[in-house]
Amino acid sequence: MSDTSQIAQRLDDIHAQIETARARAGTPEVTLVAVSKTHPPEAVEAALAAGQCDFGENRVQEMLAKAPLVSSGARWHLVGHLQSNKIRKALAVSEIFHGIDSLALAHDVDRIAQEEGCRPKIFLETNVSGEGSKYGFRPETLISEWEEILALGRVEPVGLMTIPPIGKAEESRPFFVKLRQLRDRLEQQGGVPLPYLSMGMSGDFAVAIEEGATHVRIGTAIFGER
């Protein structure tokens, strides 16, 4: 079986699993973000030909190099950590950022988006596990800074994102629950909808969907090992 056929078949299998989990959870819609980091443009083309539109990259430089080599129709999400000195370049390719992890970074993106005349959508990366090795807002920090984030003029906060500790799928569930509960609290606090939750990867996306994920970030299960 060719690589193209493998990717198409894997996408079919993942969509079936997403639909099963979505039906159990009653989630209206789930967006599959195919994380193509370290994989060549040809792999993205194969996924695009199979109907996949949303692609995620972890590094701005790789996204900038890959995007021009892929057919139109791909929508790029930056799912990794965004450095302030790469915001302007990233905005040229992506309008969806999953890793906004501090108030200072949100301010920087907002300012540069104003200069560039664009309106990026942002997820606030939240460290619900409290791991020192992870980026992200602490929940209590996000709560205290929420009004200031909502006051930004150019960025559009659309949801929260998290990465749970490495472990079995069921071990991720409490962290997905915490993110959903935090989202619900912020909606109440700010009086504005925060419709999306970006959580779940190749090993735990079904559990994430059961707990309310609207965006799942899947790489290995689509493109194979890096």
Write up this protein.
- There is one protein chain.
- This protein has 226 residues and is α/β, with parallel strands linked by helices.
- It is globular, with a radius of gyration of 17 Å.
- Helix content is 45%, strand content 16%.
- The chain starts with a helix and ends with a helix.
- It is built from nine helices and eight strands.
- It has one domain (3-223): Alpha-Beta Barrel (TIM Barrel).
- The chain has an eight-stranded parallel beta sheet with strand order 7-6-5-4-3-2-1-8.
Produce the secondary structure layout.
Blueprint (H helix, E strand, L loop, with lengths): L2 H23 L5 E5 L5 H9 L4 E4 L2 H7 L8 E4 L8 H5 L4 E5 L2 H14 L4 E5 L13 H12 L5 E6 L7 H22 L5 E3 L6 H6 L4 E4 L1 H4 L3
Parallel strand pairs: 1-2, 1-8, 2-3, 3-4, 4-5, 5-6, 6-7
Helix pairs in contact: 1-2, 6-7
Q: Please state roughly what percent of the residues sit in beta strands, choosing from under 5%, 5-15%, 15-25%, 25-35%, 35-45% or over 45%.
A: 15-25%
Q: What number of domains?
A: 1
Could you give the order of strands across the largest sheet?
7-6-5-4-3-2-1-8
Count of helices?
9
Give a quick precis of the structure:
With 226 residues, this protein is of the alpha/beta class. The protein is built from nine helices and eight strands. α1 packs across α2 (41-49) and α6 (139-150) packs parallel to α7 (169-190).
